[in-house]
Amino acid sequence: MQIVKTRTYNKLIIILPLVVISILTLVFIIRVIEVYQKTNNKSIAKAMVEGISDRIYDSLPSSAVPLIEYTLEMEKENKQYLEKQYKNSNYNKYYAKNFPLLSYVMDYDEETYETVAEIYPILSDTDSFNNGNEDDEYNWQEIPEEIIQAGSSHTLQQNPIVYTKEQISSFDFLSKSIYTFDGSITVKEGDIDIQKILSRDITIGNLSNTKDPKVLIYHTHSQEAYTDSKPGVESDTVVGVGDELARILKENYGVNVIHHKGKYDIFNGIPDRTQSYSRAEIPIQEILDKYPSIELVIDLHRDGVGNNIRLVTEINGKPTAKIMFFNGLCKVMKNGKLVDLNETPNPYIAENMAFSLSLHLKALELYPSLPRRIYVRGYRYNLHFMPNTMLVEIGAQTNTVQEAKNAMEPLAKIIFETCSD
Q1: Are residue 339 and residue 212 in the same domain, yes or no?
Q2: How far apart are CA 420 and CA 197, in angstroms?
Q3: Of 9-13, 51-55, 158-162, 338-342, where does mean pLDDT reach its minimum?
Q4: CA distances to 137, 304, 356 from 114, in Å
Q5: Number of folded domains in the chain?
Q6: CA pair distance 11, 164, nearest whole angstrom
Q7: Residue at 126 is within a domain
Q8: pLDDT category of residue 271 using cuts at 50, 70 and 90
Q9: What is the pLDDT of residues 180-234, one digit of tens each?
Q10: Are residues 154 and 78 in the same domain?
């Protein structure tokens, strides 16, 4: 009897991998045929094959690098059509529902795993920057250590954290304690002018009780929502979180705020994050031209992390989503070195970094468990509007709407105390 059981077990060990491989192969074939038949375009079929191959490689545990070099060049129209065909495919409707493992391995850039800042290509020694821009997206699997440590438990508020001038003047200290540099760029001492950053004055005169607006809040990605957000309910998205920040700044601190609710991640009535920064640039600049009194611009986002990660702490007895300030260096790697992006200049990089650093240090002083480390990437991300322009991520898709809104009271206090003269 024992021998029979052993043989049966051994057969299962052999059969199960074959079944999984067969299903994966079938799904692969179905997806290629669907797009090829509908478009009769061999380049799209080829792009799908290459895209699936890259996606599987990116998901395998053997992938030790934070970001795989992006080598597949795909026209914007083809990529958008490919994504649309996938969303309407039998795979997305059936297999993702019934086989969650296959969904994880084969899925193509699910929105919940896209970071606010959108992964972009790494330029190799033979690449050119002609086709690259900050809206190029890639599925992000890198999770910084400090996020993993947050786990699923609440992080309680600690004693104030105050660093000395000597500490924050050290690149080594900043890179280990303050900044998280994206894996697509290699930042060395000298690439960032620390003394120039520390010498910047980021205060705003007459911030409160003014007739004219002083602060502009907007959202490059207005459709970002939370784990309990109701579909189609704007107040359950980052726009609703922006409403809460605007309300608190006005009611508690007397700050005149404009909250702009343009939808730049919607194109022709369809969610489309590509080119969202480009679509937002002109309308935001028009607002700033119309209201020259504005001295602070806030692009408010929601991050995307693994579904097992919960970015939450407790402040004033309330579960509160963690926040993360973000900077773009307007640089990418070329021949192993950081090079400037002359196509998208930003004269305020040092000021932007001084602003985010000041906000981060104030957050550590007031609410030590609230801020995540400042995240730094290449590209501009529309931080060029003025010196005090900030991009901030409020929690992630695993947070609740209320946790995100609870973060607005401490954020408002951080902003006001940092910027007040």
Answers
A1: yes
A2: 19
A3: 51-55
A4: 8, 5, 22
A5: 2
A6: 65
A7: no
A8: very high
A9: 999 999 999 989 999 999 999 999 989 999 999 999 999 999 999 999 999 999 9
A10: no
Cross-strand pairs, 396: 303
Domain hosting 69: range is: 2-108
pLDDT at residue 16, rounded to an integer: 74
Which of 4-13, 85-94, 191-200, 246-255 bottoms out in mean pLDDT, i.e. has the lowest? 85-94
Sign for the CA dihedral angle at 238, 242, 247, 253 comes to positive
